[in-house]
Write a structure and sequence with these properties.
By secondary structure, this protein is of the alpha+beta class. Helices cover 37% and strands 19% of the residues. It contains 11 helices and 18 strands. The strands form 6 sheets. Strands 2-1-9-8-7 form a 5-stranded antiparallel beta sheet, with helices on both faces. The chain has a 4-stranded antiparallel beta sheet with strand order 13-17-16-15, with no helix packed on it. The termini are far apart.
């Protein structure tokens, strides 16, 4: 039995041992934390140094003669592309195959938007929910819950939700693998050359890669869809409880140029991406002064993906301008093909059937002029309303094209088609006439010339006929004179009449 007098001593010993154990744990924790911190700091220093080293990598666009000199950025690969024409303004290793991370999702949403309606319900399967990397971006959806396609696309683009990208892929493609096949097919259709996709969210896989060029090409198609552009430019999205989703929550974008943390004029939208292997990736679209640019940076360190993007966009907007072709082109003259005219001017000032497309434009360095360009014409136009396409280059670099368009022809009647019932014809509104007008001035001149020729022929013919008749009259007069003379001399001979001769 323990003595009451000894109890405090034992308690003191217990407390002392507890303090020693706690102190030991503290020392061990501090040691491990210190080692971890030093390891993290060393790793951070290495990453920072790697980014600095990447600034010395060559920028291919800077090697073009008389091309504006672009900035040195810490990204492994970067591109600035004009969104409408695909003209490349800045290029740094743009075909290097790198990991895209969550920028993959712009292709995912593009395919989903083209193959579904916004009110379709997207249900979350166990594969969609549980196949994502623990700790990666998600929006907390559970198996069996469902969202409209519209809410799902917002979840993918605003919250970068990986399980939602999986659910969208399964809904559209039948499975993640089936959707990956759709991704690779769509990328090939768009003209991508360096890509292979295996999942819809961009979580790391050695066989899932792309390039800055291919991402820019995909972004061109993405930003032609106004709804997708709006979604990618949404700072926050509020989700309220529904019958198929019980939670109330808010998603916030990771794109700090969209939120305004890195303010930039004219931002249309963008998508971020990050994995340990990919590092920071970013796709951004902005518009200023009628020019829309897409910027892609890959393999950069935070927050330099945003500062790199701002520097590159500033470079594009400051050094290049839009030049309308029809207002500057003088080499290809087609004004002489104006006999047949369109529109309602019938006195010779109407628009010719062939004309340079008024909306065709080029992207030129501000230091260059239209006269500095080289051009070539191709008659293999893809559009049936185009006769030819003129391509323009500046020191060997493509800067845009213009089409020679054919005006819409007048509608013709198909005599083989059955006639419309009279009642139906009365009910339907009268269709707008599509008429090709003739240059009346030239037609009238032609008619007058033809009439003059006919009058001249008539006059000449009349002169010839009058000369012939005069000869016949002289002959008849001589004949009558001889007849009278013979009669007077008493020769009573019956002579034939003048009319009996076939003259």
């Amino acid at each position: 039995m323990v003595s009451i007098m000894k109890l405090p001593l034992r308690m003191k010993n217990f407390k002392c041992k507890t303090k020693i154990l706690a102190f030991s744990l503290y020392i061990l924790t501090y040691a491990f934390w210190g080692c971890g911190f030093r390891s993290y700091a060393a790793s951070l220093d290495e990453l920072t140094q790697a980014a600095e080293d990447r600034k010395s990598l060559p920028v291919q666009s800077n090697e073009i003669e008389n091309w504006p000199n672009g900035p040195s950025v810490g990204a492994e690969s970067a591109i600035v592309m004009e969104a409408e024409t695909g003209i490349i303004l800045y290029s740094k290793n743009i075909h290097e195959q790198l990991y895209p991370a969550s920028t993959t999702k712009i292709l995912t949403c593009l395919i989903a938007a083209e193959n579904s309606s916004l009110d379709e319900m997207v249900t979350f399967s166990p594969t969609a929910v549980f196949s994502i990397t623990p700790g990666s971006s998600h929006m907390g959806m559970d198996v069996g819950q469902a969202l409209t396609m519209e809410d799902a696309l917002y979840g993918v683009l605003v919250g970068s939700a990986n399980e939602t990208a999986n659910a969208v892929a399964e809904h559209v493609g039948g499975s993640i693998e089936g959707f990956a096949d759709m991704m690779n097919k769509k990328a090939a259709e768009l003209g991508c050359m360096d890509s292979h996709f295996v999942n819809p969210n961009g979580l790391h896989d050695d066989n899932h890669y792309t390039s800055a060029y291919d991402l820019a090409v995909i972004a061109r198609a993405f930003y032609q869809n106004e709804l997708l552009a709006k979604m990618s430019n949404t700072p926050t999205r509020h989700y309220e409880p529904t019958d198929t989703q019980p939670d109330d929550f808010i998603l916030r974008t990771h794109h700090r140029m969209v939120t305004g943390e890195f303010p930039y004029e004219g931002v249309i939208g963008g998508k971020t991406g990050y994995t340990d292997n990919a590092r920071q990736t970013l796709v951004t679209c902005a518009e200023q002064n009628g020019m829309k640019l897409i910027c892609v940076v890959m393999k950069e360190e935070s927050p330099n993906q945003f500062t790199d993007t701002i520097d590159l966009l500033n470079y594009g907007f400051s050094n290049f301008e839009v030049v309308n072709v029809s207002e500057n082109e003088t080499k290809y003259q087609i004004d002489n093909a104006d006999f047949f005219q369109t529109e309602n001017d019938i006195f010779g000032n109407s628009k010719p059937i062939l004309s340079l497309n008024k909306s065709s434009y080029l992207i030129l360095p501000k230091t260059a002029s239209f006269e500095d360009l080289q051009s070539s014409i191709s008659y293999e136009a893809q559009n049936e309303n185009q006769l030819a396409v003129i391509d323009y280059t500046y020191n060997g670099i493509y800067v845009g094209s213009a089409s020679i368009d054919v005006a819409a022809a007048a509608s013709s009647y198909d005599f083989d088609s059955p006639a419309e019932p009279l009642a139906a014809a009365e009910e339907e509104p009268e269709p707008k006439e599509n008429i090709i007008f003739v240059n009346v001035k030239k037609v009238l001149l032609g008619i007058l010339a033809a009439a003059g020729i006919l009058i001249l022929i008539f006059v000449v013919r009349s002169l010839i006929q009058n000369y012939s008749f005069a000869g016949r009259r002289r002959y008849k007069a001589r004949y009558n004179k001889k007849t009278r003379y013979r009669y007077k001399r008493g020769r009573n001979i019956q002579l034939p009449r003048y009319d009996d001769y076939d003259l």
